[in-house]
Amino acid sequence: MRCPFCKEDRDRVVDSRASEGGMAVRRRRECLACRRRFTSYERVEESPLKVVKKSNKRAAFDINKVRTGVELACRNLAVPAGEIEALVHRVEAAVYQHHDREVSSRVVGDLVMEELRKLHPIAYIRFASVYLAVKDVEAFRRLVSNFLKGGGKAAGRRGAEKGQRGGAHRKD
């Protein structure tokens, strides 16, 4: 580390401790040339996660977009805010656990659908109908039918793929 006073690059660490809630290390240093002390901080360099859209455009992963979608799906339903927040955190944790640079918007949407399926059936249907871009009554009927049969995201995906010919398709 170069001394900010004399620009010499010989120093020793006098004290080191966690800072910023454990997200950084604060080091108190002493320059061996001029004997002045200074502080440095060491942080993990984070590379922002990108979401790859259906159109192949890339955008920064924004957990607030997930939260907004889930809140809209749960609007006027008896779903506590704490459960919505927990769902959002599970989705975020899963995304960051399995992807380090890029994640498909399809993966994020499927994770949300999986979580909403467990949380509330109406919220699931609302979200799925928008996420899968259900365009007609027949596609909506297939979506509900697959849900009632207990089909997972694959059943919802099959319904969307069938619906692409009949008016429903996935959108990003």
Summarize the helices and strands and which ones pair or pack:
Layout: E1 11-19, E2 24-31, E3 37-43, E4 50-52, E5 58-60, H1 63-74, H2 81-98, E6 102-104, H3 105-119, H4 121-131, H5 137-148, H6 153-166
Parallel strand pairs: 4-6
Antiparallel strand pairs: 1-2, 2-3, 4-5
Helix pairs in contact: 1-2, 1-4, 2-3, 3-4, 4-5, 5-6
Give the helices and strands as they follow along the chain: EEEEEHHEHHHH
Global morphology: elongated
Low confidence ranges: 152-172
Overall tally of structural domains:
2
Q: Strand-residue fraction? A: 15-25%
Mean pLDDT: 87
Report helical residue fraction: 40-55%
Q: Largest sheet at a glance?
A: 3 strands, antiparallel
- Main structural class: alpha+beta
Number of helices: 6
Strand order of the largest sheet: 1-2-3
Measure the end-to-end span. 46 Å
Backbone CA Rg: 24 Å
User: What oligomeric state do the depicted chains represent?
Assistant: single chain
**How many runs of DSSP E, i.e. beta strands?**
6
Protein described:
Helix content is 48%, strand content 19%. It has 172 residues and is of the alpha+beta class. The protein has two domains: 11-43; 50-166, no CATH class. The strands form two sheets. A three-stranded antiparallel sheet has the order 1-2-3, with no helix packed on it. A three-stranded mixed sheet has the order 5-4-6. Helix 1 runs antiparallel to helix 2, helix 2 packs antiparallel against helix 3 (105-119) and helix 5 (137-148) packs antiparallel against helix 6.
